[in-house]
Fold this sequence. Notes:
The protein has helices spanning about 15-20, 25-85, 85-95. By secondary structure, the chain is mainly α. The longest helix is centred in the middle third of the chain and has 59 residues, at about 25-85.
Amino acid sequence: xxxxxxxxxxxxxxxxxxxxxxxxxxxxxxxxxxxxxxxxxxxxxxxxxxxxxxxxxxxxxxxxxxxxxxxxxxxxxxxxxxxxxxxxxxxxxxxxxxxxxxxxxxxxxxxxxx
Length: 114
Protein backbone atom coordinates (compact mmCIF):
# COMPACT_ATOMS: atom_id res chain seq x y z
CA UNK A 1 0.00 0.00 0.00
CA UNK A 2 1.03 3.32 -0.84
CA UNK A 3 0.78 5.93 1.86
CA UNK A 4 -0.07 9.56 1.08
CA UNK A 5 1.68 12.24 3.00
CA UNK A 6 -0.32 13.78 5.79
CA UNK A 7 -1.95 17.12 5.10
CA UNK A 8 -0.02 20.03 6.35
CA UNK A 9 -1.68 22.33 8.82
CA UNK A 10 -2.59 25.88 7.98
CA UNK A 11 -0.31 27.36 10.66
CA UNK A 12 2.87 26.86 8.72
CA UNK A 13 5.36 29.75 8.50
CA UNK A 14 5.10 30.24 4.75
CA UNK A 15 1.32 30.52 4.78
CA UNK A 16 -0.94 33.55 4.37
CA UNK A 17 -0.55 34.60 8.01
CA UNK A 18 3.22 34.92 7.64
CA UNK A 19 2.92 36.71 4.28
CA UNK A 20 0.68 39.31 5.87
CA UNK A 21 3.47 40.47 8.20
CA UNK A 22 6.32 40.44 5.68
CA UNK A 23 4.36 42.02 2.89
CA UNK A 24 5.14 45.60 1.88
CA UNK A 25 2.26 47.97 2.47
CA UNK A 26 2.42 49.95 -0.74
CA UNK A 27 -0.34 52.32 0.31
CA UNK A 28 1.59 53.30 3.43
CA UNK A 29 4.87 53.58 1.50
CA UNK A 30 3.13 55.78 -1.08
CA UNK A 31 1.81 58.05 1.65
CA UNK A 32 5.28 58.39 3.15
CA UNK A 33 6.79 59.14 -0.26
CA UNK A 34 4.13 61.78 -0.98
CA UNK A 35 4.74 63.30 2.45
CA UNK A 36 8.45 63.51 1.71
CA UNK A 37 7.79 65.14 -1.65
CA UNK A 38 5.39 67.61 0.00
CA UNK A 39 8.00 68.54 2.63
CA UNK A 40 10.64 68.99 -0.08
CA UNK A 41 8.32 71.27 -2.09
CA UNK A 42 7.45 73.34 0.98
CA UNK A 43 11.16 73.73 1.74
CA UNK A 44 11.88 74.86 -1.83
CA UNK A 45 9.05 77.39 -1.81
CA UNK A 46 10.05 78.80 1.59
CA UNK A 47 13.72 79.08 0.64
CA UNK A 48 12.79 80.82 -2.61
CA UNK A 49 10.55 83.23 -0.68
CA UNK A 50 13.30 84.02 1.80
CA UNK A 51 15.74 84.60 -1.05
CA UNK A 52 13.24 86.86 -2.81
CA UNK A 53 12.66 88.86 0.37
CA UNK A 54 16.41 89.30 0.87
CA UNK A 55 16.83 90.44 -2.72
CA UNK A 56 13.97 92.94 -2.35
CA UNK A 57 15.50 94.32 0.85
CA UNK A 58 18.90 94.68 -0.82
CA UNK A 59 17.35 96.43 -3.83
CA UNK A 60 15.58 98.91 -1.54
CA UNK A 61 18.89 99.71 0.19
CA UNK A 62 20.61 100.09 -3.18
CA UNK A 63 17.88 102.43 -4.44
CA UNK A 64 18.29 104.62 -1.35
CA UNK A 65 22.07 104.70 -1.85
CA UNK A 66 21.66 105.66 -5.53
CA UNK A 67 19.31 108.51 -4.59
CA UNK A 68 21.81 109.81 -2.03
CA UNK A 69 24.62 109.64 -4.57
CA UNK A 70 22.48 111.42 -7.19
CA UNK A 71 21.79 114.27 -4.76
CA UNK A 72 25.48 114.51 -3.91
CA UNK A 73 26.35 114.50 -7.62
CA UNK A 74 23.89 117.32 -8.24
CA UNK A 75 25.39 119.43 -5.43
CA UNK A 76 28.93 118.78 -6.62
CA UNK A 77 28.03 119.55 -10.25
CA UNK A 78 26.55 122.91 -9.23
CA UNK A 79 29.59 123.64 -7.11
CA UNK A 80 31.92 122.72 -9.99
CA UNK A 81 30.09 124.97 -12.42
CA UNK A 82 30.15 127.81 -9.87
CA UNK A 83 33.87 127.34 -9.30
CA UNK A 84 34.50 127.29 -13.03
CA UNK A 85 33.59 130.93 -13.32
CA UNK A 86 36.63 133.16 -12.79
CA UNK A 87 34.84 135.79 -10.72
CA UNK A 88 33.75 133.39 -7.97
CA UNK A 89 37.19 131.81 -7.73
CA UNK A 90 38.77 135.27 -7.50
CA UNK A 91 36.28 136.42 -4.87
CA UNK A 92 36.96 133.40 -2.71
CA UNK A 93 40.72 133.84 -3.12
CA UNK A 94 40.48 137.49 -2.06
CA UNK A 95 38.45 136.48 1.00
CA UNK A 96 41.35 134.22 1.95
CA UNK A 97 43.76 137.17 1.60
CA UNK A 98 45.32 136.21 -1.68
CA UNK A 99 46.37 138.69 -4.38
CA UNK A 100 47.68 138.64 -7.93
CA UNK A 101 51.46 138.67 -8.32
CA UNK A 102 52.79 142.24 -8.03
CA UNK A 103 49.50 143.55 -6.63
CA UNK A 104 49.66 145.66 -3.44
CA UNK A 105 47.18 144.72 -0.74
CA UNK A 106 45.71 147.46 1.45
CA UNK A 107 43.77 146.72 4.63
CA UNK A 108 41.19 149.31 5.53
CA UNK A 109 39.99 149.35 9.10
CA UNK A 110 37.60 151.53 11.02
CA UNK A 111 35.06 151.77 8.21
CA UNK A 112 31.38 151.89 9.14
CA UNK A 113 29.43 148.68 8.60
CA UNK A 114 26.20 148.89 6.67
